[in-house]
């Protein structure tokens, strides 16, 4: 009888561990909406994230079909690192660099889930967000 109960508890525990999202995976759902908002800000030339001004720098290198934008996305007041990218299109390069930045910031705990949700719910596109 005891073995059956113990086995049942082990199965239940494994089931809970498999079905509960890991903290590092929960932020993945927020990356796409954050990128959408940052892209709109970039097009309006007013990028900010969680109240910090952000910058994108893109450098076009190469010639002909071998041209690429090497991108760098940073938010100096928020984090001391940058997101990096390489893409054929300037917008694609900005989005990829911003995504790289966001993934690093979430992984390091610089951006908290609740802060990201609150920022997404804010209805502004400027430094007030």
UniProtKB/TrEMBL annotation:
Biological process, per Gene Ontology: defense response to bacterium
This protein's name: Anti-lipopolysaccharide factor
Leader sequence residues: 1-26
Residue ranges that the Swiss-Prot or TrEMBL entry lists as coiled coil: none
Keyword terms of this UniProt record: Antibiotic, Antimicrobial, Signal
């Amino acid at each position: 009888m005891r073995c059956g109960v113990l086995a049942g508890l082990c199965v239940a525990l494994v089931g809970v561990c498999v079905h509960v999202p890991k903290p590092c995976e929960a932020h993945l759902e927020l990356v796409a909406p954050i990128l959408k908002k940052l892209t709109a800000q970039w097009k309006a030339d007013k990028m900010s994230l969680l109240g910090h001004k952000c910058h994108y720098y893109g450098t076009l290198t190469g010639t002909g079909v071998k041209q690429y934008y090497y991108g760098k996305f940073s938010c100096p007041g928020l984090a001391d690192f940058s997101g990096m990218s390489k893409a054929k299109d300037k917008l694609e390069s900005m989005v990829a660099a911003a995504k790289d930045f966001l993934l690093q910031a979430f992984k390091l705990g610089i951006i908290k889930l609740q802060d990201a949700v609150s920022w997404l719910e804010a209805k502004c596109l400027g430094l007030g967000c």
